[in-house]
Amino acid sequence: MAESMAPPRQAARSPAALLQVLWLASPALPVGGFSYSEGLEAAVDAGLVVDEASAARWLTDQLHLALARSDLAVAAQAIPAWQAHDLDRIRQLNDWVLQTRETQEFRLQTEQMGRSLLEWARQLGDLGAGVFQRLNAAALQPPTYPVAMACAAASLDADVHDSLLGFAFGWAENMVQAAIKSVPLGQSAGQRTLARLGAEIPAAVDQAMALTDDQRQAFTPLLAIHSARHETQYSRLFRS
Predict the structure, then answer these.
(1) What global pTM score does this model have?
(2) Distances (CA, A) of 209 to 21, 29, 163, 175, 205
(3) In Å, how far are 45, 47, 152, 239 from 50, measured between CA atoms?
């Protein structure tokens, strides 16, 4: 009888490392993520997102077609680059983010959140000294959010895969809150939407980690159109 092959077990991660990931993933992190809808508000205004089902579809598509192929993929490559102190690679990834934002709103968002994360690290004093010193030394003009978040994950010695899970879940929480306010949705509908996104996140992270430079992309025409329209939308709650 053939011996059964059990899947290899992952080494146990320390509670401290897990807490670092949860810290970075928290919507309470003062980087301003709550103030952006990333085109969702414009989609609501255009009648494309009108209820729980359409909000869940919109955000699920955005997770796989936008976040996984762009910012998550950048963070997946930037974390080991920060760990290796490869500043040329860091600058290359940061420039790619700046050059591929499809609208002014999207570029301003990644710049503002990157600068806010740098300021968060500075305000932490000794607790954030590693993050602040690394970001300052890289002299990024300016640091983009996925590259700055990768720096924080690397400085806090967080696992790459876990860091991306946290990054994606923090994004999902902010986007669900945007949907609750703009569609609008009730809290229970928001929780169901968050659960659906949570089930999709592991596959999105695996996709992001598998992408090479040539496969990474930022090409979401419908999202870009609505982001551009949002810039001149008459009434709005969010900055994007």
Answers:
(1) 0.92
(2) 17, 24, 11, 22, 6
(3) 9, 6, 37, 20
Q: Which residue from 196, 180, 160 is spatially nearest to 64, judged by alpha carbons?
A: 196
H/E run at residue 83: helix 71-83
* Residue 92: Cβ within 10 Å count: 14
Quick one: CA dihedral 13, 202, 197, 178, positive or negative?
positive
The candidate with the shortest Cα–Cα distance to 25, out of 206, 186, 208, 201, is 201
Say what the pLDDT of residue 20 is.
86
Distances (CA, A) of 156 to 23, 153, 187: 10, 5, 33
CB under 8 Å to 215, separation ≥6 — which residues? 69, 73
Q: How far apart are CA 227 and CA 41, in angstroms?
A: 9
Position 209 pLDDT exceeds 50? yes
DSSP state of 170: H
CATH superfamily of 51-230: Urease accessory protein UreF (1.10.4190.10)
Mark residue 216 as left, alpha or beta (left: phi above 0; alpha: psi -120 to 50; beta: remaining).
beta
Looking at residue 239, the DSSP 8-state letter turns out to be -
